[in-house]
Amino acid sequence: DRSWQSFAPVMATSVTDGNIIYAAHSVAVVDSVISGGDTTVYMNYDILLHRSNDAGANWETPINVTQTPDFMEVGVHLDPDAFDDRVYLAYQVPSEIETINPVEVWEDHMMWVYFMNAEWDPSINPVSVEERMPNNYTLEQNYPNPFNPVTTINYTVPTSEMLTLKVYNIAGQLVATLADGVAEAGSHTVQFDGSKLSSGVYFYQLSGASVNLTQKMVLMK
């Protein structure tokens, strides 16, 4: 019985043909950036849907299923039970986008959740993966934030290179390593589990030969 996790996976398999697999993720709209200091933030995201007809050995050209360049669509989830030509998905759109240097006071905001019956039709809006590759580094604000105990962190890199993503406490002590190795060009998503840590402020840092970005997050139990 998988009903309890019906929107948890980011991949789905057709109930009529096990060789047909779907995958979905958010991708930055590359001309929607705000720069501040040493951080570049992509403000708008669309959702790309991929399909494989041979159990993941090969993938068709992805399609943009939302096509809404003025919204930040994140946190995409797929129903694990798809069909040959369609899949059900859910995604989140924050009501407000935080600035590069947010104030120290937490403000109320809404996180809208949308549901979609996405039909696989490559003729609608095929997307070239190369055209969607980011041209800069980003380290997004984690969501949810504050969190308890799990939160999601997204980051993008323009070229393949060695990177680390580490979490530090307020005293500068390393508490977790979320990524350490070669990161391929494109968008990446990791989850941080703070269940073994105490409440407080933490910092996560993306580091490499050409990048050093840091964001703050709050664990509130």
Provide a brief overview of the structure.
The chain is an all-beta fold. It has no helices and 17 strands. The strands form five sheets. A five-stranded mixed β-sheet has the order 6-5-2-1-8, with no helix packed on it. Strands 14-13-16-17 form a four-stranded antiparallel β-sheet, with no helix packed on it. It has a three-stranded antiparallel β-sheet with strand order 7-9-10, with no helix packed on it.
Describe the protein:
The protein has 221 residues and is mainly beta. The chain has 2 domains: 3-130, no CATH class; 133-219, Immunoglobulin-like (Sandwich), CATH 2.60.40. Helices cover 0% and strands 49% of the residues. The protein is built from no helices and 17 strands. The protein has strands spanning 11-14, 21-28, 33-36, 39-42, 45-52, 63-64, 74-78, 81-82, 86-94, 111-119, 138-139, 150-157, 161-169, 174-183, 186-193, 200-208, 212-219. Strands 6-5-2-1-8 form a 5-stranded mixed sheet, with no helix packed on it. A hairpin with a 2-residue loop joins strand 3 (33-36) and strand 4 (39-42).
SSE layout and pairings?
Blueprint: E1 11-14, E2 21-28, E3 33-36, E4 39-42, E5 45-52, E6 63-64, E7 74-78, E8 81-82, E9 86-94, E10 111-119, E11 138-139, E12 150-157, E13 161-169, E14 174-183, E15 186-193, E16 200-208, E17 212-219
What distinguishing features does this structure have?
221 residues, mainly beta, Immunoglobulin-like, 2 domains, five-stranded mixed β-sheet, four-stranded antiparallel β-sheet, 0% helix, disordered N terminus
